[in-house]
């Protein structure tokens, strides 16, 4: 078990490099990972979400009642800044419907679990980060389809009910199951939690490999534009969260958490929703997959910078 824990710790620490390597292999040697089917994406994401549920405790939700103002700020920033940034980038770069749908979905999804790890590494307010991620995720079945419809209904058909059901099945149910198991069998789950970084990294790598390998030719054709949009979306998200924290005069630790939470998305969910909600738009899955690679790299770099930013 100790060896497994060390392997898991290593994979969690070097997640950015591992995911980048898998993405590069999938892009330039796609045949090597074509055996990973895009139909597996939902199940792989369910594994990641179940793992998130195993780490949650009732205390994580108490923050909603003890510090509601901060949670509301985080939720508003998440579901206003990132969708509007996505829409602006889609317009500026004049993206085709497939890529536009993918970028919008990344913007309308809640923050990802990686934000909690990056906030910890940044010496930010981890409790606030976990609270924002948890609440944003619970709001996602309602807000993600609604905002996606609002921004995209004039361009493509948006199945809001289908998206709602998909988020419930792929995100809420696995998280709830993990939470319940952790509540009643915490003594055993605490041992399993040590292996979660390894399981999550493997699942995320497989999601990236599936999407990138099956769309390698198209990505190489439109790669520069997609990467530019994804990188800008992520970096501008960090900046928006940072500026909101500064304008509202939040303490440094809270500003770090807000910046990271806004900038880092549950891009796995965006990829999953793109595959189920827009099956006719193959490229819709690509922005989410690339975001999964990029935000882990940028998050690691940002954590290094934020660590040196002293506490107030």
Describe the structure in your own words.
This protein is mainly alpha-helical. It has helices at about 1-15, 15-30, 40-55, 60-65, 70-95, 95-110, 115-120, 125-150, 160-185, 185-195, 195-215, 215-245, 250-265, 265-275, 285-305. Helix 2 runs parallel beside helix 11 (about 195-215). It is globular, with a radius of gyration of 18 Å. The N and C termini lie far apart (about 40 Å).
Short key terms for the protein model shown above:
single chain; 312 residues; mainly alpha; 15 helices
Please give the share of residues in helix.
over 70%
First and last CA, distance: 40 Å
Task: Give the low-pLDDT segments.
Answer: none
Report on the biggest sheet. none
Q: How many strands in all?
A: 0
Q: In terms of structural class, how would the helical and strand content be classed?
A: mainly alpha
Give Rg in angstroms. 18 Å
Please give the count of helices: 15
Helix/strand order: HHHHHHHHHHHHHHH
Shape: globular
Average pLDDT level = 89
Strand content: under 5%
């Amino acid at each position: 078990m100790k060896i497994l824990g060390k392997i898991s710790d290593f994979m969690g620490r070097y997640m950015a490099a591992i995911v980048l390597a898998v993405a590069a292999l999938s892009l330039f040697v796609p045949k090597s990972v074509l055996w990973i089917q895009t139909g597996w994406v939902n199940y792989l994401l369910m594994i990641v979400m179940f793992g998130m549920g195993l780490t949650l405790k009732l205390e994580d939700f108490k923050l909603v009642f003890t510090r509601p103002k901060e949670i509301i700020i985080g939720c508003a920033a998440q579901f206003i800044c990132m969708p509007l940034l996505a829409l602006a980038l889609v317009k500026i770069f004049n993206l085709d419907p497939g890529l536009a749908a993918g970028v919008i979905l990344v913007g309308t999804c809640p923050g990802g679990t990686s934000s909690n790890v990056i906030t910890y590494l940044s010496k930010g307010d981890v409790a606030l980060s976990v609270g924002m991620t948890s609440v944003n995720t619970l709001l996602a079945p309602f807000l993600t389809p609604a905002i996606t419809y609002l921004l995209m209904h004039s361009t493509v058909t948006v199945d809001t009910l289908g998206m709602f059901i998909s988020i419930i099945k792929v995100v809420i149910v696995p998280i709830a199951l993990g939470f319940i198991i952790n509540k009643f069998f915490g003594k055993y789950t605490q041992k399993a939690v040590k292996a979660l970084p390894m399981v999550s990294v493997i699942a995320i790598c497989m999601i990236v490999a599936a999407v990138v390998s099956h769309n390698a030719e198209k990505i190489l054709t439109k790669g520069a534009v997609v990467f530019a949009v994804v990188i800008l979306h992520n970096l501008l998200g960090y900046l928006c969260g940072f500026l909101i924290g500064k304008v509202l005069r939040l303490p440094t630790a809270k500003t770090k958490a807000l910046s990271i939470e806004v900038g880092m998305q549950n891009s796995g969910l965006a990829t999953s929703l793109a595959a189920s909600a827009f099956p006719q738009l193959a490229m819709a899955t690509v922005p989410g997959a690339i975001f999964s690679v990029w935000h882990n790299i940028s998050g690691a770099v940002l954590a290094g910078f934020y660590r040196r930013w002293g506490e107030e």
